[in-house]
């Protein structure tokens, strides 16, 4: 018989221990930076609350009530560092921006920037690169696994399916013999990924996930900034 779960909410409307997911969900749904986790042992839940780590908010299922993501391919262990990222342009090409949120040891750091002429894909790549660059400067991040969340299939598939690695091996030429776009950013991203264990996960954009929505707002705000610098790596395709 499966043990009954309790839910620990570290950051939410009202932090504490909740007997049902319905009660816990009210505390974390729509709450930016919510931290929570399910347990079958109340003592373990109380212990976790003293030193919580981030777990991403669930996406509601149309068939049954939403449950926290735990033992799935996209779930992450307590020791992981999380990078949420987003990027885009006001036109494509056009003024663009990126935003990312790095969570480590229960703390968050926002990173954002923009360029006066760039593309959606370049900004999606830059958001991931910015987060990974930061981790290279943080002693406490060394040797830890990193989970990167992006709503760009271009970025996630490019790494997870080995497309970018293949383009690099072929001198940035794709299988159709055409040049691969954005070799400068792909090259830097591959170099950063090679330095530690990094897993990329796709998340649905504009679906209400609090951290993804925050990254989107950061990117849009950056794209609308004044006196934006030049994206020196941008090339008209």
Q: Mean of residue pLDDT?
A: 82
Helical amount among residues, as a percent range? 25-40%
List segments where confidence is low: pLDDT < 50 over at least 5 consecutive residues: 54-78
Question: Globular, elongated, flat, extended or rod-shaped: what is the shape?
Answer: elongated
Classify the secondary structure makeup into a structural class.
alpha/beta
Strand content: 15-25%
Oligomer: single chain
For the largest sheet, list the strands in their spatial order.
Answer: 6-5-4-7-8
Q: Tell me the distance between the termini.
A: 59 Å
Q: How many DSSP H or I helices?
A: 7
Element order: H for helix, E for strand: EEHEHEEEHEHHHEH
Provide the gyration radius in Å.
19 Å
The counted number of beta strands is 8
Described by strand count, sense and barrel closure, the largest sheet is: 5 strands, mixed
Describe the structure.
With 237 residues, this protein is an alpha/beta fold. 31% of the residues lie in helices and 24% in strands. The strands form two sheets. The chain has a five-stranded mixed sheet with strand order 6-5-4-7-8. Strands 2-1-3 form a three-stranded antiparallel sheet, with helices on both faces. Mean pLDDT is 82; it is low at 54-78.
